[in-house]
Recover the amino acids of this structure.
């Protein structure tokens, strides 16, 4: 069975609405609380995805993008 690949194409029907929801979830939180919310959200979504190889690919992509923009 082939391993799923990371979808990098636009896939949210309402990305602005999602972003607004994400910002609203952080409203009024301290930096530490906001960081904890992000970590919890990431772990919930990682559990939902459930494919370690796909998650590893996403981690590598996110890390390389960050490193490229901050060097």
């Amino acid at each position: 069975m082939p391993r799923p690949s990371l979808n990098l194409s636009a896939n949210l029907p309402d990305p602005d609405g999602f972003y607004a929801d994400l910002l609203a979830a952080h409203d009024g939180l301290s930096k530490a609380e906001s960081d904890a919310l992000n970590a919890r959200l990431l772990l919930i979504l990682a559990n939902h995805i459930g494919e370690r190889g796909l998650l590893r690919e996403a981690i590598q992509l996110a890390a390389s993008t960050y490193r490229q923009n901050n060097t």
About this structure: The two ends are 39 Å apart (CA to CA). The chain has a mean pLDDT of 92. Helices lie at 15-26, 31-49, 52-69. DSSP finds three helices and no strands in the chain.
